[in-house]
Amino acid sequence: MLTVSAYAATRADGPLEKVGIERRDLGPLDVLIEIKYSGICHSDIHTARNEWGGTHYPVVPGHEIAGVVAAVGSEVTLHEVGDRVGVGCFVDSCGACDACTSGDEQYCTKRVVQTYNSRIGDGEYTMGGYSTHIVVTEGFVLSIPDGLALDVAAPLLCAGITLYSPLRHWGAGPGKQVAIIGMGGLGHVGVKIAAALGAEVTVLSQTLSKQDDGLRFGAHHYCATSDPATFKALRSRFDLILNTVSVNLDIDLYMSTLAVNGALVELGLPEKPIRVSGFSLASNRRSLAGSMVGGIAETQEMLDFCAEHGIGAEIEVIPADRINEAYDRVVRSDVRYRFVIDAGTF
């Protein structure tokens, strides 16, 4: 067993604290990763503060991991010592169900093992990327292309694939009108990817305060949803809308901007159930759907695509002792656009 430094939440109403945790011995198919950077996702905060329920303490968050291979098991063939690698939201699945065999491991019907807070044994739970090292089975380790710096690549392991997967699934590309609701940690990456795919991209944000950034990231239009005239002007326009915010919106209002056969896809997780009128769905044969992250192969495809197109997250790198401050700032939306922890400071 390897003892490493980490930051853990020990209770819902307390700060994250520096601790020592055990990483398992290297198995034949395992990869030991020296973590260089770990992104802060809002999901980390929800889990650390038990806002979704089901948190087992102590919990070490972090599922946006970028680092370098430090050692490999005797049967590893996919990675070598010194390789630049990443780990996303899950580290194992059954490998046999229809979802797994079709490359959608994230929807495994038997046992998705999340990177943190997933039970893996009697009283044992996975511990995430807020640490100096992690051990992961080789099939769930991604290669980070040389064209991507590790710090800006880290958030792509969650934020990037969360946007890339639905954009690909719903056919975003040339000739398609795509809207991104929200210009935060998820939305800003979505704008970059959708534009690189060739779609005509519109940002739907409450105000125009981030308009310059949105246009710089590749958006063609930027609209304030606080202006009632916006929805009239955009009626029946979009083929695809990706909702990246976690608050409960007036979904019927946004559905009115979908073209025939258009889809609104929920990526954020609002606290209360989503309400939508049947008329909103029936009109224009619209769809309301949801999406999670992508499978391993699709995540690798996303990383390669981002390297090819020069896409990385907009980040603020922080030392580990500022994690709690960063959490409070994320809740206040006081970051442009993603915090990344320098794991060398643990």
Automatic annotation (TrEMBL):
Highest taxon listed in the record's lineage: Bacteria
Alphabetized PROSITE patterns for the sequence: ADH_ZINC
Named cofactor requirement(s): Zn(2+)
UniProt KW keywords: Metal-binding, Oxidoreductase, Zinc
Catalytic activity: a primary alcohol + NADP(+) = an aldehyde + NADPH + H(+)
Residues of the Enoyl reductase (ER) domain: 14-341
EC annotation from Swiss-Prot or TrEMBL: 1.1.1.2
Family recorded in the similarity comment: Belongs to the zinc-containing alcohol dehydrogenase family.
Descriptive protein name: alcohol dehydrogenase (NADP(+))
Taxonomic source organism: Rhodococcus oryzae
